């Protein structure tokens, strides 16, 4: 189905977006000559050049996190604790202690049991369970796309809502999203469904449930994931301002131009917009 309109968010709900923070940075001490030179060089860049440079830095950071999560999963022999797989420091600070709560420990035992002794594979791969958080640091989040269950076909789930790895057939739901993107902003429909480029620009692509059995939708629902992702949303709502929440699902309406509307909201808040072209 086509995506539903972007829904601005408020601290206690995800219905309204936050107002721009009132505080401004204090004037800094005079910068050394080297810093002034760097600043002058940066000032000569176009907004697009600055956006690309920022995205490249964020991508390098995200890939370091991915390698670290892969290493932890490998070293554990596939039995890593959930708290070991969340490696992005800003989220560890924001969600301090969440994965050590009783419900999360029970969730960890369930997922480990499923992976080691279940009859069916569990998706996504262990190192990608927290891909959404590891790829989009807490301090960079400015839009949130909420999904439901991970894709449950072989090779599809990659830890980002609606996203599939390059080389995997684009699901119909994502295909409809791309059609809306083309109508809204005139973007070229991509040949792949990897949405990591959105993630590194500050789009948190979070499913409400983060694991699933192969070919069994909702098989890991009501096991504790919903409580964890609720904690993520609550933390964002309480600790950040200037956000846009996008809810995509069966009730989606067509012709709502949610990509351009999201950028309009971000512009009004004085935040950099998202380059939606993949």
From TrEMBL:
UniProt gene name: ga18616
Superkingdom of origin: Eukaryota
EC number, UniProt record: 3.2.2.27
CDD domains (UniProt xref): UDG-F1-like
Segments forming domain Uracil-DNA glycosylase-like: 134-266
Protein name, entry field: Uracil-DNA glycosylase
Region feature Disordered, mapped onto this chain: 25-54
Residues of the active site: 149
Record-stated family: Belongs to the uracil-DNA glycosylase (UDG) superfamily. UNG family.
Subcellular location: Mitochondrion; Nucleus
NCBIfam families: PRK05254.1-1 (NF003588), PRK05254.1-2 (NF003589), PRK05254.1-5 (NF003592), ung (TIGR00628)
GO molecular function: uracil DNA N-glycosylase activity
UniProt organism field: Eleusine coracana subsp. coracana
């Amino acid at each position: 189905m086509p995506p539903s309109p972007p829904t601005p968010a408020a601290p206690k709900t995800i219905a309204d977006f936050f107002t721009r923070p009132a505080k401004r940075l204090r004037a800094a001490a005079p910068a050394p000559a080297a810093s002034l030179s760097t600043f002058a060089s940066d000032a000569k860049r176009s907004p697009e050049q600055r956006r690309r440079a920022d995205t490249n830095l964020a991508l390098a950071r995200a890939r370091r996190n991915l390698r670290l999560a892969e290493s932890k999963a490998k070293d554990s022999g596939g039995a890593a604790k959930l708290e070991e797989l969340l490696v992005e420091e800003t989220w560890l600070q924001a969600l301090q202690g969440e994965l050590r709560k009783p419900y999360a420990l029970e969730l960890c035992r369930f997922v480990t049991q499923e992976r080691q002794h279940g009859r069916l594979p569990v998706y996504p791969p262990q190192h990608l369970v927290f891909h959404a958080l590891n790829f989009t640091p807490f301090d960079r989040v400015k839009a949130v796309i909420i999904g439901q269950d991970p894709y449950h076909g072989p090779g599809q789930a990659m830890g980002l809502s609606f996203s599939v790895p390059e080389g995997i057939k684009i699901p119909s739901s994502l295909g409809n999203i791309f059609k809306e993107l083309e109508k809204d902003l005139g973007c070229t429909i991509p040949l792949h469904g990897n949405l990591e480029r959105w993630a590194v620009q500050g789009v948190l692509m979070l499913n409400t449930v983060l694991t699933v059995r192969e070919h069994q939708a909702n098989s890991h629902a009501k096991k504790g994931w919903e409580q964890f992702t609720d904690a993520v949303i609550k933390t964002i709502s309480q600790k950040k301002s200037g956000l846009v929440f996008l809810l995509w699902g069966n009730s989606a309406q067509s012709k709502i131009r949610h990509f351009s509307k999201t950028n309009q909201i971000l512009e009004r808040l004085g935040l950099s917009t998202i380059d939606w072209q993949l």
